[in-house]
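Pipeline run #58 for the internal structure catalog. This entry was flagged by the ingest filter as a single-chain record with no existing model, so it goes straight to prediction. Upstream metadata was stripped on purpose; only the residue string is passed forward. Reviewer on rotation: M.T. Logging verbosity set to normal.
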Amino acid sequence: MKNDDGEGLNRGRRKLLIAAALLAGTRWPGRLEASEGTGSPAAILPAGSARGREVLILGAGIAGLVSAYELHQAGCRVRVLEARERVGGRCWTLRRGDRISEFGGAEQVCDFAPGDYLNPAANRIKPDHLGVLSYVRTLGVPVELFESGPLGQNWLLRRRPGHPLTGRRLRFRELDRDELGYAMQRLVALLEPAGTAPGLEDKELAAWARGFGELNAAGRYVGTAARGYRVPPGAVDAPGEPAPPLPADQIWSYGPLSAVPDWVDSAKYPTPVLTVTGGIDGLARAVAARLPAGTIRQGAEVMRIRQDAAGVTVHWRDAASGQVHQERAQQAVCTIPFIVLARIDSDFDPALRPIIAGLPYEPVVKVGLAFRRRFWEQDEQVFGGYSYLDDPDLMIIYPSARLGAPTGVLTHYYSVRDSLPLAALTPAERARRALTDLQYLHPGAGTDFASAVSIAWARTPFSAGCFGNWSANARARDLPRIAAGDRRVIFAGEHISQIPGWMEGAVQSAHAGLKRLAQQWELRS
């Protein structure tokens, strides 16, 4: 059945059905039965298989916490050293009162309204991230839908000069529907050239293109209600007037932002996507809560790593006292980001050291702008999703949670190109820059501005970058060597996976590392 939103209704129904399936069981405490097909991680290490073993975990991010949880479930004595005064690593949420420190001494205090928050790194759970979803279900972590990628009401703005549309805001649906309509018009012209009788297959394909592109009887695209109205429909005597399409030549020459429609429901921006209700750190805290008291030592910065025939010795410095202590275990799982690990005194295999030192990390900058009023909802009917600028290369993320709340936080996600100069600014300068950039898309937004926090990951202690980014050649050459570990040390983390930057990469890396530990136990037993 056709409707004014084109494919929108079908997409929406499909999205809700898939989301319902994903959400089924997520709030149940305890493990689901294996017969329910949950992908429960219980089989990683069979119960009791690690009894009598001692393993030291370096880092309490997702990979470290998952490793500790599974080892504890298997009967292992586990200790976790975490340099920060919190768990989660880059699975982190900023709320009112939280403090942010940077290299160089800059300090910020989050001043968001109660209930508002910013996830400065990890934020999304994709439908195929079965490892993360299994812990969501097992631990009863509450999750909700998150609008990922561009939605119809979101904005696009070309700021690069030299184009008729420079400086003009477009709703995403305008560009999306016009691109589709003109593409289908061209396809029909190719399938049904004037003066010829198309074959049955071409005729059927042309008929599909006419419907999909909402073309007129002559096979031309003249606009559609799905791209929006010049005069909205209303009562009986107000049928509405759809807005006319933009000229085809302006659409095709729009520039980099013309690719945005290709991202809808793509691998980069799949739908539906979930997030943890109230902040992504809820997942890390839920895993940590299942460990015995005293398992995790926070404020413990690893200073030195040594291995011998019987085990691993780690020297760490207490952030509170400055004193250096020593821990020893039979084996260790090291989840410290390589960009940090490269500066730690270790006796790793000399062949591995250049790999550890050579992995680049993305210097992402995220800025959270807090507002006293959700003007994007109230004035512009934007309810979640992403808007885009081309200069700077900027993505603005709108909250999907707490729709209709009086206050809210917009997240600025800057590209690598723009993150490097932003990282060199002070937090106050970043906030001013972000507010200026926002007002290109939302003129007058400064009126409702309340406060800001920013995370420059290249300047963040114990991270020094947002995620590891292997080149294709380095990934093929070096990742298997690193994944094999070094004697009694196993490496894990998002950077030891094929999906860096995602919590799922950390989970799958942890699972793979635990399997290697189990293999070592068998060889040494």
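catalog note: Confidence is low (pLDDT under 50) at residues 1-41.
catalog note: The chain has three domains: 31-88+296-359+470-524, 93-158+362-466, 161-254.
status: ready for reviewer M.T.
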